[in-house]
Specification:
homohexamer; 320 residues; UDP-N-acetylmuramoyl-L-alanine:D-glutamate ligase; 15 strands; globular; KDG_KDGal_kin_Halo (chains A, B, C, D, E, F); ATP binding (chains A, B, C, D, E, F); ATP-binding (chains A, B, C, D, E, F); nucleotide-binding (chains A, B, C, D, E, F)
Amino acid sequence: MTALVTFGETMLRLSPPRGERLETARELEVQAGGAESNVAVAATRLGRDAAWFSKLPDSPLGRRIVGELRSHGVDTDGVVWADDADARQGVYYLEHGASPRPTNVVYDRADAAVTTLETSETDLDAVRDAEVCFTSGITPALSETLRETTADVLEAAQDAGTTTAFDLNYRTKLWSPDEAAEVYRDLLDSIDLLFAAERDAATVLGRDGDAESVARGLAEDYDIETVVVTRGEEGSLAVSDGAVSEQGVYEAETYDAIGTGDAFVGGYLAKHLDGGSVAESLQWASATASFKRTVEGDIAVVNPGDIERVVADEGDGISR
Amino acid sequence: MTALVTFGETMLRLSPPRGERLETARELEVQAGGAESNVAVAATRLGRDAAWFSKLPDSPLGRRIVGELRSHGVDTDGVVWADDADARQGVYYLEHGASPRPTNVVYDRADAAVTTLETSETDLDAVRDAEVCFTSGITPALSETLRETTADVLEAAQDAGTTTAFDLNYRTKLWSPDEAAEVYRDLLDSIDLLFAAERDAATVLGRDGDAESVARGLAEDYDIETVVVTRGEEGSLAVSDGAVSEQGVYEAETYDAIGTGDAFVGGYLAKHLDGGSVAESLQWASATASFKRTVEGDIAVVNPGDIERVVADEGDGISR
Amino acid sequence: MTALVTFGETMLRLSPPRGERLETARELEVQAGGAESNVAVAATRLGRDAAWFSKLPDSPLGRRIVGELRSHGVDTDGVVWADDADARQGVYYLEHGASPRPTNVVYDRADAAVTTLETSETDLDAVRDAEVCFTSGITPALSETLRETTADVLEAAQDAGTTTAFDLNYRTKLWSPDEAAEVYRDLLDSIDLLFAAERDAATVLGRDGDAESVARGLAEDYDIETVVVTRGEEGSLAVSDGAVSEQGVYEAETYDAIGTGDAFVGGYLAKHLDGGSVAESLQWASATASFKRTVEGDIAVVNPGDIERVVADEGDGISR
Amino acid sequence: MTALVTFGETMLRLSPPRGERLETARELEVQAGGAESNVAVAATRLGRDAAWFSKLPDSPLGRRIVGELRSHGVDTDGVVWADDADARQGVYYLEHGASPRPTNVVYDRADAAVTTLETSETDLDAVRDAEVCFTSGITPALSETLRETTADVLEAAQDAGTTTAFDLNYRTKLWSPDEAAEVYRDLLDSIDLLFAAERDAATVLGRDGDAESVARGLAEDYDIETVVVTRGEEGSLAVSDGAVSEQGVYEAETYDAIGTGDAFVGGYLAKHLDGGSVAESLQWASATASFKRTVEGDIAVVNPGDIERVVADEGDGISR
Amino acid sequence: MTALVTFGETMLRLSPPRGERLETARELEVQAGGAESNVAVAATRLGRDAAWFSKLPDSPLGRRIVGELRSHGVDTDGVVWADDADARQGVYYLEHGASPRPTNVVYDRADAAVTTLETSETDLDAVRDAEVCFTSGITPALSETLRETTADVLEAAQDAGTTTAFDLNYRTKLWSPDEAAEVYRDLLDSIDLLFAAERDAATVLGRDGDAESVARGLAEDYDIETVVVTRGEEGSLAVSDGAVSEQGVYEAETYDAIGTGDAFVGGYLAKHLDGGSVAESLQWASATASFKRTVEGDIAVVNPGDIERVVADEGDGISR
Amino acid sequence: MTALVTFGETMLRLSPPRGERLETARELEVQAGGAESNVAVAATRLGRDAAWFSKLPDSPLGRRIVGELRSHGVDTDGVVWADDADARQGVYYLEHGASPRPTNVVYDRADAAVTTLETSETDLDAVRDAEVCFTSGITPALSETLRETTADVLEAAQDAGTTTAFDLNYRTKLWSPDEAAEVYRDLLDSIDLLFAAERDAATVLGRDGDAESVARGLAEDYDIETVVVTRGEEGSLAVSDGAVSEQGVYEAETYDAIGTGDAFVGGYLAKHLDGGSVAESLQWASATASFKRTVEGDIAVVNPGDIERVVADEGDGISR
């Protein structure tokens, strides 16, 4: 049995070297990146059994994605392979920024194979057998079909007693706040554990006020057991069955900020699935997010000992 | 005034190092590649004024294409910029082969911005002012809209006295022989100078027999002034106003075979526009194609002196 | 259930770029390489479920090995992790040659963690449940302990009805022909399917004569069901239950010859496990070996369709 | 008609990776760099038509320069090609520093082809037709011939009503303050728009005091319409027809500081040629300089939207 | 005559690019690194004649080490070549950290050839002829044999009037504080010039208190002429014949901190051998250490002028 | 005492990756290359003590040259350092060819520091103490000063009983056959051992006929003890005191042909200095030349065992 099942889109991430712009690039580094697989990788590397499913073209590009995820130990048996010749693999181009030049993401994900993933193609039994089932707000943003599949899977999971976890993950380039809000509101009724960036809660769901009141409000309105609100440099806060936990940020020299939020969720779920309390899970979430920042790529290439050291704060810079 | 105008799709070409497969790649080399821009670059580098137009997304990826073409001297002022957020830049992934592993191309070009290029967006005056207007059989294969635009542009050109040039360039992964044949037949009436691989003539147009009879047949049936038939390692042959010219192949150590056919056309047009005879143009075509094989990328990075040396056969291996 | 279980040492392979010598190298490419894991990867990629086990240091280097094997789908759950601080990861340095400079391998594998792998640490049930259990003559060459473990595992497998497969794989730098011969002779009694290079059979086992008589002799003397003798460019030959099958070599442009023999075995076992005849298995063996030569690294990055195409001989050089 | 014409030397810039010293380098990155072409590129990229002329060897190295400049859209038709076999291409080697190790530039530009550029070889009509003609104090430092050519071109421009723009750009490694002062004083009479680093004004022209008094003094003494004084981290100041404008610095994470001053001038001229006021031009100058710092190379790979965002201060770090 | 002789182990240092972890690395940069050869290189580059000896395998890997050291001018004639087939070259893998991820060193140096270096194999005359003989506390930690050889060489040196210099260099991964303390105490009687990190003095030798009292205590207890105590960011202090010298730290943007301590010793010895006072030697030590931090690799790629500039504090960031 | 002293120019060699042209290059590989230092390196690596002297700028570029030569063991103590700010380091750009595109060398060596090397700056005693003193026909081609210095050094050597060795090495891009002939004729009187490519003997010295008669003619006319004539793929021939030796070519997969002739001379001298006969020296010359072809760069990265294997013809492709 797999402790965690996640689903969503994973793209090829193509990025030129630091200091170089996309429009003059001659070489692109290739990696796999997607919110839900990032979460699965972090949880797997931290010791949990995790699976990820999606729909990929049966092409070198699709196999490239699966190969990288498997290398970290993620179970990809649930992947649906699209073998029509024009099945697409989503791609995103990433230009690393430096103030005042923002890090820029150019998506090329329209009509990716995953947008046609129907509920009937998914292995709902695997979802029902898992302890936690996770996806993010990116998934229902990708197509009408995925919107329905997302709703179906989360419902099936919750019905079977699987904890449903969701990260709002609002993306401006995918849809408007109003479109997102309508979908989020429908889905939130099926969610047991919600991760929400303070900004997303405000922009999309119109939730202003301090983090605690936002968390409490969401928990009450949608009957969500645990709501985690992240506040960037100011740390994070969880309201779980009415109780509040707070967590600061571990400082990091940021090498690559992409995937930090997913590492946060992955760290949280890893500790949670290991029996950790909400406070402990938040601590692992924060430490994993911080650690992720030091590594190139979407993925938190992390081991349990790494996080234990961050939490225990035992660094002296060089280990030899 | 520009001597040559070409139009069609130019893609980003992404390729892993030799000996590495796409599905395990960690780095991809980036270049611009497209039959018609390859032709324009070769002609420009060989001394002619050439322009290329197309429709590109107004994004770093689209600008990447234009920057590379301009670096070779091609005039890109006619490019139409698509500024809708979801305008796509076509991409192709190239895995260099080694026998028995074939070189493999994975297209990701569906719905590229160029597929929406309408006649009204193009600068027909530039086409009418040119001496030669060129496109290839790939262009009308890309969309219904492009099929019409291709027909319109070639007709406008021919009506204005511009020589219309066309390379069949049949691509299995884009359409069936039957679909291609129908479109080709319509277009051939507007063509003055046709380039056809012997295999394409057979597969698509059902033209069997020796190269000369194929050329003569096409010239007569469609009233084409000059038909050039290429026969791979066996050289090429032209029938022009009934007269036959033949040309052998210059041997090459092949480093990258992609773009060889486009270099052939570019070399032909460069010499033709310089007042060369059909035989001389064929010779430059063959030499440019051979030279291209020694250079990485779609593009023939060539100078007039390079071709003069090949034709004069003055190589001794090292020049110092 | 896993169709194939292999075991042995997998090293980090460190190699400078082509044309550069180890003693002036500034950058080394890293890959995982080992005869038995190479076999497991080839079989997995060609569609069979395969596992590999060994003993690795619980360090970034050991995890590097497992990550790469898992990326190809190999089950590594049976790996024993050595967590003592001085557990070693074997390494080999590879300098690509060009005649008259030979490809040179510098081993640094003494006292690697795998040399301490005892039978009691292995999962014999997994071996007993498999259809085929494979190792090579390198494994017992590495330590006295491994010699015993190899014998124990092969015996346990054969007793349980698992087909035991073995490749002589004699390595001059590891032991003398006499040392090897003694060990081989003991092990051969437990073998059902033997792969032997003609040269190894002569050098180590003193088997001269033509390939068929070598194969028949080994089959009879050690009561081996199937003996496959490989003869380099001259192809291969199998004697199975007295019947002879012969197979030529598929020509290849060799990019990297390391791992060719392992790809041969992997291709054979993949077809065999899929119900192929000896002749069909030999054909897949030969095609996989040929294909491997075109790819950098020890590992045959191959898919079933690739081999089907080689066997069907449908290449035209470029697929687009 | 071209809005801006610049002229001067452009070198190949060869630099090892960060953290590596020139004297142990094994790989050098190649780019084109020169104050005046840097200005032309920045202005072109920001939307103005700009040309650059110089004298280059008719060799792969000279063509390398032109190719890179053309890729950004700069018109290089005015380049004079030196086809004598020993015509030199200037080169500079750049070692990126890190405190306390300074960034080090090793020039190898003596006797470059450009040092023989005579007035009679230049296209003075293009200069006369332009709105602005720009060069920097590096140009007359390179040779006696260039000193005369610089004077001739600036005079011809001013006589034709073209605005003449000049950046002092004093370089210790090229000449002494006294030599520079003599030449500057002659040239300043032909200048309408002067850019001067506060330090250069002091070192070379003996202008001490605060920036405003320096600017006013230069404006009055040489009858210069607009004098812009840059003060490093303290911002910049312009005196134009007696009126003063001040501009602060936009903070930047500096990736490569080379070319910052040229980006400043390019940004200024781009806005000025678009009808901007002195204050607006200074703001674009400052924003372009800041943006340049985030990009590897001499050249500001910038688009109008980038600068609009810096000026509007709308960064949130990641755009996705 | 050589001014300085050092001896000890030099390893191959293999490190992935910044931001990448060892366990996902695909390319490793290769360099030579070892405390004593780092010291020899720094001293040689700063103008002194220096030699280094050790025992290396007669293999491409051993020759790789010698080649790199020779490139900096170090005399390696005293190297003993081990030509048995299984002689090992020590290696260390270096993962560059970023807070909170520590820089991680994975040693693979057990049983390296150097561990068998006996006194009889060394050229004691070269040691006796030198002005200074240096090794560090790493050398006796590597094997019992090296412990004896270290003692023998230092004694022979001191007996001949050669100044013996020693850096405690305690390494947790090599031995326990107690083991180290016993060996250090024996060796310190033969030492004339001791370098000790404050932390090592405390951890291993139990010397607490301020740096001056630590230095005085060590000098008195072991009759050491000069004791230098380094205190990280707080600078360094020397007690020499009872007199105290203090030195601050030159601030640096750290690119690679490995080898900083060795650069400190190398800078000290270079100035000392040039007749510098203790205070001047400390200043050069500090400046060389600071400069080293800006360069990738174990080795201080430094020239005398570089250190003169740091000491004179004449940096303005760019020299052109 | 040094067995061999060579002198001449060594340049930085800058070359783009294979398949890429200089005029589109983004990265250049850096190496040291020069006929005489190539000879010194080959001889040193093959076991002889060799020195090289020249005049280099006291800059990172000059030190880059010396560092690389020293890494191979060449004694560079005789190098004269030019410390005037404008002392130049010669450079050559190398574009690897592939038929029909020739390998192209672009020299940028005019006015290099070495062109000012006067006899008075050289250490003639070192030359007189050597067994062999070597330079090539490139050296006197570089400047009038070098012409005199070359004559002086060779004369001083011969007078002292040092064997003088010379390779015609005619370079079209440096001077005309007539200019070269005049200088060669003067120098040949001071030569004891001459290496001449058959083509150079014909082109410059007008020596036609078969190789033996060319060799005999040169030996007699200039009273040269040994004349070696190389004939490309047809091998080489020596006439020494009237006796003829012939040597074939060892076949090689050519990776980089530059430096092959220098490796030939280096191999010859290494064997000659080891007491080899003319025939044995020719054999080593031929084997070293062949081996060089397999290695990137001007330099033969070779060890004595490598050549012994080539001569003994013991290759089987992979050594493991």
